[in-house]
């Protein structure tokens, strides 16, 4: 039998707290899991700095990737198999894309990418199609197969149905991470009835639809997603950790560019300073490496770098205040910080975040998201927000939030009492 | 109010998946959690290499330490408070010892300590009584207080009751880790009725006893413990990871002592090579640092070091076989490995482990464990194994298990066919 | 110490799957639980006919009543105690009202009350203030105390804060039943973070408010409630059971009034036929009695009564169809059923149900519900729908649903082919 | 396709809190569930009087029967299918036997059968092979099929493998009830890793074996069973309920035989008084009927009957004391009760219970239980207690427990102070 359909003599299972067990019978999947690029995902946390507000959120992307694979496997084997719109020849493609969809994530992607201009989606593609163990395994299926898998992940593949299984507004990726992140943080918000949604999914030519009787279950899923964003993912304390780490990276880059002489050179980061990053360079980076450098930087002579990295490592975070996003406020405070001798570039950060829980491409919307479609018994198709007042209430509603971050003690220590008073007054007005 | 009884204006809580919430109202506890030595526990996994067999076991000792604190806090505030044998003046001592009991753990303690001769219990004491942030906080209670906390942890303190809350055969430490490790691995074995055990705990002069009606609940707890050891903690795959890591450390030490010139010197390890380790040196080490070095070693010219570290990082583990522990078998195989040109020092490892689920100091026993005592309604005290045939069946029964670890492919590649055949035959006999 | 504050020497606990344990320390509460009127609640299911669609929903009102008590106890002892707006003298009043709030429920209240004109709220009051064991226990507190408890339950008591703990849009009653009914049915919809809501509840002069930071948790709670109504409580299959039972009661009443001679007289129901029901008569009725009569009615000569009761007992339910609520449709079908010789009074039932998930008394609203109020740090009060687009989207939105119920086989057996065809056509149009 | 393999066009599911969903695709199973004999199981509690000590244990045998079916279905479809020792032609037989194994249970079987001499196993057979709806459905498979199903249930069928799936020391029946009863009571003892046991079950010619690697999981399962017996099923309070109910039945029978004139004759019980019970008579009895009669008996003139039934209905249970089972004690107390004018036949009950958690037919054992067999990789078979010290410690160990039940207040009210004192002294000695 050809490699992509080859079964191992006995099924292997991974004990998993979210899905009970993850079942692997395909040799192809087993081989992919064993590659060093996939194993590297164990050294990258699924939720970056979130452990700073939810101490138990320490799980890795390895963890989550297995979960997405398992959901796609169940979709296919328990629901899609045998239905006219599903071609079981696409099973290996769907499973591989599910397993590998996060392969290009780096350490603390959100802050890292902003400073070094890398893009984890591009690197996912580069790792899959480059000179890697993953590529060698996938190529055994067919020389074009790695490219195909990459195309599914970056959504350019012609098979829209398979794409929608892995990236859409109700896909295996989200269904896994909502439940998984809820499990590890210990919150109840991420719970929804995945079993019911799976049972009611129907493959169609271009997308996965949900049987109309599943409308309330989808509603509940979208609410879970909404709650997880505002109650967990956007927690201001862990955003404060990101802010700090971002300033660390920025400082180190600035110092490097200015010719600063490091006591200990962060070797693995050098390609990122120069912007000439090979796949191999990229893969060498993970969160253990970043943490090692952070601990080295704590000993550097540059006081900004050593202060920021020490703050991050020891969780001595900035204080935060909500504000209305006004540029005037930022401007005034920036000036006052400068007058006080506190570099606002590193010690005064305004951070905004926003969430659009559900939307779709329609007149007036600024996005190309695909709608969630319900399928009636008679075969009609309905966009879900037309069926639910609750979903309708959040459709296209982009909610923004703004926070200011700054180190409280530095302000309390300002010598110039007039400046100090002005800063404190302005901040008090915000609170 | 004196510092050790000072309450914060509002209770702080940590969301915790095992205990729902961890409640902190004491300023002293809050200050300890914020110290960098306590924060460092976030960078040390609770279960070392266990993630190699249970992928979701990625939680840290920080996590567990908060849990032990919470259980002791509940013991005191919900059960002991107001009972004659409990003196609430000991509350700060018990809480601090609970929180800090694992403070001296290093990265992958089990393998690390064997090679470098460090001892995490000694370092717990050293950190608490040395020049650290933790010491500064504890000293605010009383100059002697750090010493007292350390004495509770190393079991030399005169207050045996407080010691038994944190280290005995049914203590807060075990009750937390059994449940926590079960939660993160996703197994069901760690479940027992802690709520019932807590309700039935009674402080007495020298130890915590359990009301007689809790006998079955304790039985169930001991069975959970037993199952966790054999089904989870002793999993041969993760033991294989330990074996590999142990050999990495060994090789690096051997190379250093032999004057090998490292491409990149593992600076933070140097004090451990020379055996002259300060508290500061010790604290600098965590699992991110070890992982960084492992990745550096993958690039070293020494093929044994680069092979072993690469195997560990990329989870390319040795194969294992059960055997009967016989020295003859080991001897024969060692010789054959040598003849095949595979260094048995690094590539042929026999590993044994054993567990004694419950025992106590009595004629014929070789240990000084304190028994679990049941307390009858009329005030009599009974050792638990006299009341339960199940506990009796495991009391003092030390179960051993032996495994041989070796790299399968290296054996398959042996050129000398006679030697190769002899090795394979011997291994097959074991299986 | 006076009776209402008297503690038992040792706390009693009930193992409860929802709250882990229910804790009783007050003699008063213990005495109430032992009364026969409270024990009677074991013979009345919490969810009536819902077991016909969710087979595992077999729990009793006894169960739920203990749960509501436990939540109120925790509110008081863990959150309210010591806060200025809370007077701990009101504790017994709040606990008793919580425990007894459902005392007057009868068997299958919803269908029963429609036919026999009884009202469970009136009977709750009558039982509490009448010649009962519950009354005797409450009177030991104070001769007026039963009256006071009844006033809290029927919301006429001057203490609005205590009333809002037990009946408001976010009260102990709902918080218990959402979680409990979810637990027994096995659905995930009823989950919300009660621990967080409890921690953020604040007693004020006239009501319980929620700290502003709990806004998302309340949102989640309201969504749980909404989902439970549409996914569980309104399940059309169990509504079909209610429809049948309602027609059974109706038939039996019609027969009695027409002088029909029962083979076996339903003695306990006689007072309900004549409308002259004493508290003692009322208490004699429970679901075991109703089921006994149903089984007797299966043997009666009246074919309608024997058919309907047999259908209910053996779960041979009517078929249902959604429709738009139009009176014309009902009229046409009623006439056709009559022509076909099927009595539409019993065999053709239109049923409507509606839910208003959240609302409050305001211009244009037709209800006197009290709003859910958020309390800001600075002490301002905000109505919750002004803070949440999701809650706003369901505020005041009364959703209706209509179903037609009829026995499929009877229609298939209609002799007059023209009438049969006309009925089938009309029903098909609805579908 | 023949009826026994006929699939419905769409799978039906039952939401179940223990197994998430119960899946039915076979028309045969669906038809059986709809029969009135199977629906009757909704009116019989799985755990009889256990709700008197665990208030939430109110679930029915209907509930459990679906669960056993689901486990057998999963065994077959997920594990056995395709293995040489499994013949898929036996699937309908196994599924039907699983679903129907408890069909003959009556109300509160344990006490009822002792008085009226009925046997639920005989009635299971009688219902399956008699003139019933269940029989009609089963006969559609083959005229002999009902008989075959009954033979599997009563263990006389030649297919020992199928029998062992449903009744052995590790069967679907026990695996369901341990988990289900734990779920409903809210205790943690019933948890074990069923998923792992299922995965490791292997069909062999005459029985289901477990792969050797599942030894610890079976150990854990046997411990769960052991704990459930001693912590839940044998709870002395609910045994006290059984004792009362038993005495009610006894009294009513004695009265009937003595020609007592009942105010209201318990019609459905008459055949049981005379011992001439048809299947139809038997099926008419359920717990709602028994409860109706109990409420009628509360009004009878016979003070013993009215007192006992009123005590049971209102949960005014006897007090209990442990004792050593000595006949002398019982004799002395019986005589004293008589002298005090309290009829010991009804008001002084000694009750014993015992459990043998695991055993098998071997020299010296008095039972014909089949051992649990482990299957090694090389195909050898090992009896489990030879592999586990824990199981070995409970093998063949029959643990007994004795309780005395009596009404405390009656004793306190004894007029003859000498007799009263003697009774109280004797009871105190026991305590």
UniProtKB/TrEMBL annotation, chains A, B, C, D:
InterPro entries: dGTPase-like, HD/PDEase_dom, HD_assoc_2, HD_domain. Residues 61-178 form the HD domain. CDD domains: HDc. One of its GO terms (molecular function) is dGTPase activity. PROSITE patterns: HD. Gene3D superfamilies: Hypothetical protein af1432. Pfam families: HD, HD_assoc_2. GO terms for biological process: dGTP catabolic process. This is HD domain-containing protein.
